[in-house]
From TrEMBL:
Enzyme Commission code: 3.4.21.107
Entry's localization field: Periplasm
Name of this chain's protein: Probable periplasmic serine endoprotease DegP-like
Active site positions, chain numbering: 115 (charge relay system), 151 (charge relay system), 224 (charge relay system)
Organism of provenance: Sphingobium amiense
Family to which this protein belongs: Belongs to the peptidase S1C family.
Single GO term (MF): serine-type endopeptidase activity
């Protein structure tokens, strides 16, 4: 690292300042910052002051008072009745939460995040929501509606005079590199303003409907629910999440785009329940292994693991093993996942769906249904994360001789009864897995039934090996297996071939 040192001095004699220079300095000297004014970046004002002055009154602080029930820590001890605490009786405590929001109408409708106005712990209830304006006026707010799936909520306050408000802009026109401004109340500091650029669009963080705007504008705890403005002062995002190991800003913040938020907010303002489109399919991302096993490009489409009986997908002829690549003309990709595309379709509408089956593209038409409640969905969906794949009862020496590191035998009526699977099940049952292979790493184990390989039925070890050879001959490094485990629905699992 290089360091440059400069030494200047001033002698004050009789109130006169004398500059000390070296003999090499010639002529009048000026400060480096004399008369300097930085040019504004293209599309950005030289100062944000005028814009912030107009926008800030519409941004509010939101706080809640919550009642939380906690267990008596002295229950069952001699101290249980001290200070009026009955043994085993839960105690009630007060808690608070803090966030931001913004007014969207002169009569007092306010948008914020659902998590800002929700109970923060199990057993907690929100007793009061308080909205504080920049002029320190306080109002008790009513919760008009909420949508936990997108983390949005609408509040209403009543004011004797019209309130300052802001309007939504069009986030579809936003580009990576555009300047944005975030206003909110981080760390209970009223009216904090930060600026930055858009770092990414349609960013997912694991949620079904995630399509966040990512920004490096500082967003911290308490900014949640506050607005993200473009340089025209329009709300193009609602600050919602941060990615941070410390809990503070590290330059990775996420905002719900206005294109997603505005229609939901309008429905909530009307008191309407949020309804979303539904096809009735269980899907998996088309990651590298799965794409390789199908001979397709990764992250272009989503794989159908299962189809719910009687729903739109089954009626349209969609089957497990299909890859859906577009819906209603919108390509399915990590930026636009299948769930979010279908959710935005009108219920009852007929939509064209392009899919790939056995390497061939075809188009079907499905009628979009209404998405059931989460409880209903859980009864159909298979939670693969809950599968206990860790208990391996294998003979690696035997399995190591096989092409996939899997040793299997044909199903017989006796084995079918022992496994507890349907009597008409056809396939081979795994007797051993080599734990050093991808099959072992993916959790295949003794007792699993392989129904098909490479979308072909298999009834013997020889047929399984033949499909492995066929896949290898096509230059693919993974094979798609359909696997059945007792008490569960069949799933498709890509397994990488052994290294030779």
């Amino acid at each position: 690292m290089r360091y440059a040192y400069a030494i200047t001095g001033a002698l004050l004699l009789g109130g006169t300042a004398i500059a000390v220079t070296t003999a090499s300095n010639v002529g009048a000297q000026v400060a480096q910052n004399e008369g300097l004014q930085a040019a504004a970046p293209a599309g950005a004002p030289a100062s944000l002051a005028d814009m912030v002055e107009k926008l800030q009154p519409a941004v509010v602080n939101i706080s809640t008072k919550q009642r939380v029930k906690v267990q008596n820590p002295f229950a069952g001890t001699p101290f249980g009745d001290m200070f009026g605490m009955g043994q085993g009786q839960p105690q009630t405590r007060q808690a608070q939460s803090l966030g931001s929001g913004f007014i969207i109408s002169a009569d007092g409708y306010i948008v914020t995040n659902n998590h800002v106005v929700s109970a923060g712990a199990e057993g907690a209830s929100v007793e009061q929501i308080t909205v504080t304006l920049t002029n320190k006026e306080e109002y008790t707010a009513k919760l008009v509606g909420r949508d936990p799936a997108t983390d949005l909520a609408v509040l209403k306050i009543v004011s004797p005079k019209p309130l300052p408000f802001v309007k939504f802009g069009d986030s579809t026109k936003a580009r990576v590199g555009d300047w944005v401004v975030a206003i909110g109340n981080p760390f209970a500091l009223s009216g904090t303003v930060t600026a930055g650029i858009i770092s990414a669009l349609h960013r997912g963080t694991g949620g079904t409907y995630d399509k966040f705007i990512q920004t490096d504008a500082s967003i911290n705890q308490g900014n949640s629910g506050g607005p993200m403005f473009d340089m025209r002062g329009n709300v193009i995002g609602i600050n919602s999440q941060i990615l941070s190991p410390s809990g503070g800003n590290v330059g990775i913040g996420f905002a719900i785009p206005s294109e997603q938020a505005a229609p939901i907010v309008q429905q909530l303002m009307k008191g309407e329940a949020i309804k979303r489109g539904y096809l009735g399919v269980q899907i998996s991302p088309l990651g590298e292994d799965l794409a390789d096993s199908l001979g397709l490009a990764k992250n272009r489409g989503e794989f159908v693991q299962g189809v719910e009986p009687g729903k739109g997908a089954e009626k349209a002829g969609i089957k497990a093993g299909d890859v859906i690549v577009s819906v209603a003309g919108q390509e399915v990709s990590p930026d636009q996942n299948l769930s979010s595309i279908v959710a935005s379709q009108p219920i009852g509408s007929r939509v064209p769906i392009v899919l790939i089956r056995n390497g061939q593209r075809q188009t079907v038409t499905a009628v979009v249904g209404e998405r059931p409640s989460e409880d209903e969905l859980n009864s159909f969906a298979q939670n693969q994360d809950d599968d206990d794949f860790s208990q391996q009862d294998q003979n690696p020496g035997q399995a190591a001789q096989q092409s996939l590191g899997i040793s299997a035998i044909p199903l017989t009526p006796t084995i079918i009864r022992q496994l507890g699977v349907a009597a008409d099940t056809r396939g081979v049952v795994i007797t051993a897995v080599d734990g050093s292979t991808d099959a072992g790493a993916k959790g295949l184990r003794r007792g699993d039934v392989i129904i098909s390989a490479n979308n072909r039925p298999v009834a013997s070890q020889a047929e399984l090996d033949a499909q492995v050879k066929a896949v290898a001959a096509q230059g693919r490094n993974a094979i798609l297996l359909q696997v059945l485990r007792r008490g569960q629905q069949p799933i498709f699992l890509p397994v990488r071939l052994r290294d030779k």
